[in-house]
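Hi, can you check this record?
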Amino acid sequence: MDETIDQVPLPEDPMVRVTYPDPIFRPVPPFSIDVPADWVLTEFPDSLFVMGPTADPNGWWSNVVVRHERVLRTASLEVIAATTWQDLLAIHPDAKLIDQRLIHSTYLHYVREAEITLEGQPGPVTRIDSFVFAPVSDLPTVDLFQIIWTNPAAAGDERKTLYLHMLRSLRFADAA
């Protein structure tokens, strides 16, 4: 392919321009979630946003990353969790699974707790992933949200309680 893109011949069949966003493509579902008042939110690669405290307690920044992905309606939280566990092991081969379970709240969450090591960190890091589907009407795909919390393992369960409260507070706007 030694042509420049401007030299590519026009197709013979008629073309139409697709603009995004477009009414035929639904946006990310609106949602709300409770976070501590002193936390900041910012953009983050491959995610909707990242949030965390404004100060680094104990020398390490805890954070919560919120990701969105559209998946086939036939996908299950259990299969998604198993697949993402394999992805996590590929990046962190020493990851240790601590717990995983379905948690019923306003929405069904699949929650997995693992312990990983991160370069430059003095000790292990707790990573808790929550997978939850946004309510959706009869469409071929569903909106999957992954909410990832990382925190020094030495910080204990107090911060885990905060994360679980955040998950419990998650609310999606009415499904269309």
About this structure: The mean pLDDT is 88.
